[in-house]
Design brief:
By secondary structure, this protein is of the alpha/beta class. It folds into four domains: about 120 residues, Rossmann fold; about 160 residues, Rossmann fold (3-Layer(aba) Sandwich); about 110 residues, Helicase, Ruva Protein, domain 3, CATH 1.10.8.60; about 60 residues, no CATH class. It contains 20 helices and 18 strands. Strands 2-1-3-6-7 form a five-stranded parallel β-sheet, with helices on both faces. Strands 9-12-15-8-16 form a five-stranded parallel β-sheet. Strand 6, helix 4 and strand 7 form a beta-alpha-beta unit. Helix 1 packs across helix 5, helix 13 packs across helix 15 and helix 14 crosses helix 16. The longest helix has 24 residues. Bound molecules: adenosine-5'-triphosphate. Adenosine-5'-triphosphate (ATP) binds next to helix 7 and helix 15. Keywords: ATP-binding, DNA-binding, Nucleotide-binding, Phosphoprotein, Transcription, Transcription regulation. This is Two-component system, NtrC family, response regulator. It comes from Desulfopila aestuarii DSM 18488. GO terms for molecular function: ATP binding; DNA binding.
Length: about 475
């Protein structure tokens, strides 16, 4: 039995859908407006949503991004009374299952409900993260979850995979996760780093050689391709593979045969290929520095890892994990992370991605090993500056209604909580400052009015403004 949510204010259509969902053995719930629909979806594990475009309190399509983020990731069928091509485009771009126009016949309703739910069930089975071994992959942003779904998809097949993404985004980590989740997980995972292959030894390292095959070949050597037999061969930095070797490499991928140097017989190896690059292989093909046939062979299934700056809350999770493991590795007490430090880390663009984050935290912790909390002062100047710049630009924005608490979800801080006193002091100071800034803005610098509104005495208000480096023109010097 599946859960269907119907968000439509048309009572005839509501009853029609209710009746047919019931006949198919599914449970259906009703909402007549955007607001009701949102409430219903937040309390229901929906599998399928029928969403009307014209609702009394707005356009139904506005709900799409929200629905997309729901943990049950339901399918959405957009219903509209009149054809609207722009709406359809937006709906499809936002991942809607279908876009239908009223009136709908009984058969049409049954067909669409059945198809969408069948697809949904398969999707859920495929992307079940419960069984996916994530290795050390930290994060649960939407962008990362999408890549994990792709790993789950690959796990069921033996096809080649090309992982792309900027440096330090975790390409090797993902390659290992693909191996770990595949039927080859008990066999070797062999890494070939094309960027560090000495040009004159590429063939020998990949394919092996027999003693005496060339000057310096003092003994037989098994190549990496042979070692990968039965397992996974991970070709890292494949864009660096010399053009001269690309031809024999293509043959290896097509036929799984190779010839060790000095042997007259060809050998076979049964490996799964996973390749990775931070270079634009298509551009290299256009420039003639990468073979197009090899590119097409590698690019059977592509996983593109997003840069850290596009992973939202993952940065905080990664930071907490790294701080914990770096402190453990160096036998230091586990440090806390001040909210300002997180803000500075979040404001930085991380061209070196997760590797750069880990290295930065490593240096920050070692620079002051006994400090119980990591403050911005421990960070490199360029990252601190980003934090300061973002704070300055925030000042120009409207003040938030509620003070932001910046206490991460309990799980993220469970082992790296800052000291209570320190945390309390920082939060109080932040809230005080926000209050004072708002007071200054609302009273437009009128000291008397500010005292009346806030209930603070003149000297207390002056003192607080001074602490927070704020300025009110009528308070340039306190009255004695
Ligand atoms: N999601 C993640 N969770 C935890 N650690 C991660 C994650 N992604 C990457 N890392 C860590 O970041 C570092 C860099 O990852 P990795 O070597 O896999 O990146 P890469 O994309 O292959 O880099 P390059 O392109 O430079 O070879 C490693 O220490 C890895 O463990």
């Amino acid at each position: 039995m599946a859960n269907v949510v119907i968000i439509d204010d048309d009572s005839t259509f509501q009853s029609l859908l209710l009746e047919h969902c019931g006949l198919l053995g599914h449970e259906a719930s009703l909402a007549g407006s955007l607001e009701e629909g949102k409430k219903l979806l937040s309390n229901h594990q929906a599998d399928l949503v029928f969403l009307d475009v014209r609702l009394p309190d707005g356009n139904g399509l506005e709900l799409l991004p929200y629905i997309h983020e729901l943990p049950s990731s339901p399918e959405v069928i957009i219903i509209t009374g009149m054809g609207d091509a722009n709406g359809a485009e937006m709906a499809i771009k936002n991942g809607a299952w279908d876009y239908l126009q009223k009136p709908l016949s009984r058969q049409e309703i049954i067909l669409h409900v059945k198809r969408a739910l069948e697809y949904h069930e398969k999707k859920i089975q495929r992307s079940s993260h419960v069984n996916l071994k994530r290795d050390e992959i930290v994060g649960k942003s939407k962008a990362l979850r999408f890549c994990l779904d792709q790993v789950a998809q690959c796990a069921e097949t033996d096809s080649g995979v090309l992982i792309t993404g900027e440096t330090g985004t975790g390409k090797e980590l993902f390659a290992r996760a693909i191996h770990l989740n595949s039927s080859r997980s008990k066999r070797p995972f062999i890494v070939v780093d094309c960027a560090s292959l000495p040009e004159n030894l590429v063939e020998s390292i990949l394919f092996g050689h027999v003693k005496g095959a060339f000057t310096g070949a003092n003994s037989d050597r098994r190549g990496l391709v042979e070692q990968a037999d039965g397992g996974t061969l991970f070709i890292d930095e494949v864009g660096e593979l010399p053009i001269e070797i690309q031809k024999s490499f293509l043959r290896l991928l097509q036929e799984r045969v190779y010839r060790p140097l000095g042997k007259d017989r060809e050998h076979t190896s049964d490996f799964r290929l996973v390749a990775a690059t931070n270079r634009d292989l298509e551009a290299m093909v256009r420039q003639g520095t990468f073979r197009s046939d090899l590119f097409f062979r590698l690019n059977t299934f592509n996983i593109h890892l997003p840069p850290l700056r596009e992973r939202g809350t993952d940065l905080e999770k990664l930071t907490m994990n790294f701080v914990f493991s770096i402190c453990r590795r160096n036998r230091l007490p586990i440090k806390g992370v001040a909210p300002e430090t997180l803000e500075a880390l979040e404001a930085y663009s991380w061209p070196g991605n997760i590797r750069e984050l880990e290295n930065t935290l490593d240096k920050a912790i070692i620079s002051d090993p006994m400090a119980p909390v990591l403050y911005p002062i421990h960070l490199p100047p360029e990252i601190r500056l980003c934090g300061i710049r973002s704070k300055v630009s925030l000042k120009h924005e409207q003040f938030p209604e509620e003070p932001s608490h910046h206490l991460p979800a309990p799980t993220t801080y469970s082992l790296t909580l800052p000291f209570f006193k320190e945390y309390r002091r920082l939060q109080l100071s932040r809230i005080e400052k926000q209050y004072l800034q708002r007071l200054l803005a609302e009273t437009e610098g009128d000291g008397e009015l500010a005292c009346r509104l806030s209930g603070l005495s003149r000297s207390r208000l002056y003192g607080l403004l001074k602490i927070h480096s704020l300025f009110m023109k009528e308070f340039s010097s306190p009255k004695k």
